[in-house]
Amino acid sequence: MSVHTIAGYRRDLNRYLEYLADREVTELAAITPAVVADFAVVLREGRPEGPGRPARRPLAASSVARAVVAVRSLHRFLAAEGDTASDPAVSIQPPSQAKRLPKAISQAQVQAMLDVPDTTTVVGLRDACLLELLYGTGARISEVTGLDVDDVAGLLDDPDGEQGLRLIGKGNKERLVPVGSYARKALSAWLVRGRPVLAEKAKVSTPALLLNTRGARLQRQSAWAVLSEVAERARLGVPVSPHTLRHSFATHMLDGGADVRVVQEILGHASVTTTQLYTLVTVDHLREAYLTAHPRAY
User: From the candidates 15, 126, 140, 252, which is the catalytic residue?
Assistant: First the structure.
């Protein structure tokens, strides 16, 4: 699993240990299904501040579900290892989650973001490259920040855009995605005029494609901060997350007539069901256009 998944499970299990300590449960044999079920309730409702313990804000259903999965895995492991006679979490199900429509921004809003970086500066060249790669390929932000220079070398010698970009996604699955001329142009400008300047500041040489101002690899959190700053300067008026450009890429592809299976392949979704959430967005868009434009829509 990715380091981010492992860190998430670690936080979940630490919450579980804190919860057991609050309930003064010190033996595995004392953990019952009711104890595990109450843990999920506490996460969903939050916890007030108490003597020697900080308050905990309520978690979203998706976060509670992940925590329950982590605890179920822990108890399944303990039972398999013979540390417990039974599995107290086997009957506890994660809370069901409502299917949320992906949040995408309009093409005009995307363009406003792409216009923000000042490409006469080194940092501006990097930010433009980051934005163009995210929107031009639909990649996850961790996939882009994880790229090395060698991963994109073939793109620079490919004026016709026939060379794709290999991305490593969730579950260490590899996929090949096309890269358009705008992204390749931004990538070339960064590698030629921007990256060498920041690379000189590095204490240790790095193969990373995107660098921070100290010459080290640009981390996911820093890339997120770049997106937030760009969105603020573009005056979008809406929050922008690391997935915003990915969602927008998918929605705009489907709006343009792309087949949902093609979008699934490019995004690296294991199931087309995930990709089909975007079709609900485009149906709303079509309905709005119909109501606005057709003389007998009402």
Answer: 140
User: Does pTM surpass 0.85?
Assistant: no
- Give dist(CA 26, CA 87) in Å, integer: 17
The active-site residue, picked from 170, 175, 193, 220, is 170
Of 75, 217, 246, 252, the catalytic one is 246
Q: Domain 107-239 classified CATH 1.10.443.10?
A: yes
294 part of the active site: no
For 43-91, how does the pLDDT look when each residue is reduced to its tens digit (9 = 90+)? 888 877 766 666 778 888 888 898 999 999 999 999 999 999 999 999 8
Domain locations in the chain as residue ranges? 3-80, 107-239
CATH architecture of 3-80: Orthogonal Bundle (1.10)
Give catalytic status of residue 246 as yes or no.
Answer: yes
Clarify whether 140 is annotated catalytic.
Answer: yes
Of 183, 178, 153, 144, which is closest to residue 164 (Cα–Cα)? 178
